[in-house]
Amino acid sequence: MHYVYNFLVYLASLGLKLVAPFNKKIKLFVSGRKDSFLKLSDEISVDDKVIWMHCASLGEFEQGRPIIEKLKESEPSKKIVLTFFSPSGYEVRKDYNFADVICYLPLDTINNANLFLDIVHPEIAIFVKYEFWPNILNQLKKQQIKTILVSGIFRENQAFFKWYGSWLRKSLKAFSHFFVQDKLSKSLLNSINFNNITLAGDTRFDRVFEITKQNNTLNFIDEFKNGHFTIVAGSTWKDDENILVDYINNEASANDKFIIAPHNINPEDINELKKSIFKKVVLFSEKENVELKDYQVFIIDTIGILTKIYSYANVAYVGGGYTKSGVHNVLEPATFGIPIIIGPNYYKFLEAVELVEEGACFVVEESKKLSVLLNKLKLKNQFVETGKKAGNYVKNKTGATNIILKYIK
Question: Which of 156, 264, 293, 401 is most deeply packed, by most CB within 10 A?
């Protein structure tokens, strides 16, 4: 099977090169890898002590981030190499200050695995959540490099737990230790005779909890909110916006304020959204020289500030619950102790499921249900007590980062 895998990787590399000119994301995937070895060779010397972390994409980076930042703080002399598989992770975080070298992970061929580890020569390799590359893992094991998995998640349908997955199970022997998120993952690993496991939880909770300690002040949001009950809708898609706009146009109190931060900030889509709202609307790009307190709806047509905006919400609506990929990050508003509203596709996100079970997150499928729910939350400021459940949920799940750091040190 390993020979078949290597042949498939070879075919994939050829196919990606053929498709790259016609697909922007794949073009970044291919072109970005051309310079990985050169960048690594330029930045890493033979005498450097190196910690390597690999993340599939942006979500996994957020899980690895608290570990990187604590390691950089405690061991500043060591170089940190951060690799990504996906352009959606690399392109957003390629200038991240806490890593010394950031690049794409080369495709998992035997030659690439050997060359990568020869150049990087890490003291420890840290994989986040569920990235398993057999050739790289085999070389890590051969070179006896300490290798750990953090915030790991395993599922019964993975090949490791099937009759045909014995060759992949061998790759897992590269891991010195598994730090997993849940009991099921631990049980599954136990079932294939791995016992070097700690049920540590998810490092994302440490990351989002730290957000509450930073300065989240945005003066223009203060001006817009002006003491009014405010609903912040983040990462919204078209279906989310249809429900929100229907509520804003037909049900909302004139005293309520709405901040909408769409997932897609294409100017045409932003203008369409603005035109669909019959209340007084202002865009982020129009905020200069206007009295923001005079507007009822504020559309954020920029990126990078949503987390801070959540800190101003009385209630948060998190988009994506009507898409195939599912709801977006519910932990960012939850950490501020805010009730959360989402669409129906959330079941593959454990934190969303648990927040619903805690009574801190609510599922709506139409604007009338949204109206009923918001009226209930506003009644006697019920949103305050409900929000505390969300905040406590996050706080009670912190600590994974410290467990992992104790092992590393």
Answer: 401
Backbone angles phi, psi at 263, to 5 degrees: -65, -40
Cα 150 to Cα 162: distance, rounded to the nearest angstrom:
23
Q: In a 3-state reduction of DSSP, which class is residue 338?
A: coil
What tokens were used for 204? Answer: 């994302």
Residue given tokens 């609903």 in the structure block: 231
The SS3 of residue 172 is helix
Farthest CA pair distance, the chain: 67
Q: Which residues does 237 contact at the CB level (< 8 Å), separation at least 6?
A: 262, 263, 264, 319, 320, 322, 323
**Residue 400 to residue 303: CA distance in whole angstroms:** 29
Instruction: Note down the domain range covering 261.
Output: 219-388
Q: Are residues 308 and 357 in the same domain?
A: yes
Cα–chain center distance at 158: 22
Residue 276 phi/psi, 5° resolution? -75, -15
Partners of 51 in the beta sheet? 80, 124
One domain for residues 381 and 245:
yes
Contact 124, 144 (CB under 8 A): no
DSSP secondary structure letter of residue 316: E
Quote the pTM value. 0.86
Q: pLDDT tens across 148-163, in order?
A: 999 999 999 999 999 8
In sequence order, the β-bridge partners of residue 105 are none
pLDDT on residue 21: 83
* Contact yes or no for 202/176 (Cβ under 8 A): no
Q: Are residues 171 and 314 in the same domain?
A: no
Question: 244 and 315 share a domain?
Answer: yes
Residues 6+ apart with CB under 8 A from 27: 20, 21
Structural domains of the chain, count: 2
Concatenate the DSSP letters of all residues of 257-289 into one string: EEEEEES---HHHHHHHHHH--S-EEEGGG-TT
Write the pLDDT tens digit of every residue in 313-336.
999 999 999 999 999 999 999 999
In a domain, 272, yes or no: yes
Range 267-276 contact pairs with CB under 8 angstroms and sequence separation of 24 or more: 267/301, 270/299, 270/301, 273/241, 273/245, 273/299, 274/299, 276/241, 276/245
